[in-house]
Amino acid sequence: ITLPYYVKNSGTPVIISLTDISGRMVKPLFNGVSKGGKELITFNGANVNHGVYLIRIQVGNEVGWRKLILY
Questions:
Q1: What angle do CA 10, 13, 16 make, to 5 degrees?
Q2: Average pLDDT of the chain, as a whole number
Q3: Distance between CA 6 and CA 40 in Å, rounded?
Q4: How crowded is residue 14: how many other Cβ atoms within 10 Å of its Cβ?
Q5: CB count, 10 Å around CB of 1?
Q6: What confidence tens digit (pLDDT) does each residue in 8-40 have?
Q7: Which residues face 39 on adjacent strands?
């Protein structure tokens, strides 16, 4: 699975994680510093149960969510 995201400034801390629908972390996906601009994160969902999940994307102090359905 490949997820695009955009970061305005290089050097900004980014934390991306897969959470269940209640917000509990299932799997950390990325914890690092951005290069700035459009970026991609790729992960293998084969070891995760089928269902509805949320992707939590924290860039600096801002947090966003995306819905993900694995089947």
A1: 115
A2: 92
A3: 9
A4: 18
A5: 14
A6: 889 999 999 999 999 899 999 999 999 989 999
A7: 5
DSSP codes of every residue in 46-64: GGS-SEEEEEEEEETTEEE
3-state secondary structure (DSSP) of residue 45: helix
Rounded CA separation 61/68 (Å): 23
23-48: burial string, b at 16+ Cβ within 10 Å, e else: eeeeeebbeeebeeeebeeebeeeeb
Residues 6+ apart with CB under 8 A from 49: 70
Q: Could you tell me the pTM of the whole model?
A: 0.87
- Do the beta carbons of residue 29 and residue 41 sit within 8 Å? yes
